[in-house]
Amino acid sequence: MSKLVYGVGVSDADYQVQVKETISGRYKSGKKKQKGVWACPFYRVWVNMLQRGYSEKLKVKRPTYRDCTVCEEWHLFSKFRCWMETQDWEGKELDKDLLIQGNKVYSPETCVFVSAQVNSFMTDSGAARGQYKIGVSWHKIRSKYQANCNNPFTHKKEYLGLFETEDMAHQEWLARKLEHAYVLAATQTDERIAEALIGYYENYGVNCEYS
Q1: Where does a domain end: 72, 94, 114?
Q2: By the number of CB atoms within 10 A of the CB, which of 70, 72, 130, 164 ranks highest?
């Protein structure tokens, strides 16, 4: 029996899922070095998903994956591939918590493939945004709160104005973010993604995981 992938995954593919080639040099163990030159796209996504669910090293490096797991059905590669083949996946990224906010389990019911644009639009910058609410910074010269919002289409930061309170600036950011969500939703082919984009920002007071 082949070695389990990240301690749980069973690779039951009836074909070669990856190709490696030997490169010059050896590891300290004496084994020859190898590098991957090709991997089945279904297998690559599956392995990356299992890594997020079961790699302790990754969980230490990226705490947002600390409680993530993969449903038992998808521990078997063939089951995951069957599902992925029915999805619009090419050029997109596997997402587990757009459809169900706060979800930590990768499964057929909770996952969807999204474009890099959608993924970036929904990603919270976390601690990088500083001490103020998202979309807000302090304008030292004017002694006011400044609102900005990243435009997902131009990839530029939009200046939204100066405000007396942090909450006013944040609400301005939220209003602009919702406008962008409607436009981005209109470009989606999957109605579930479109509804999730709009629904998240319409209910932002309840859901604060993303930007």
Answers
A1: 114
A2: 70
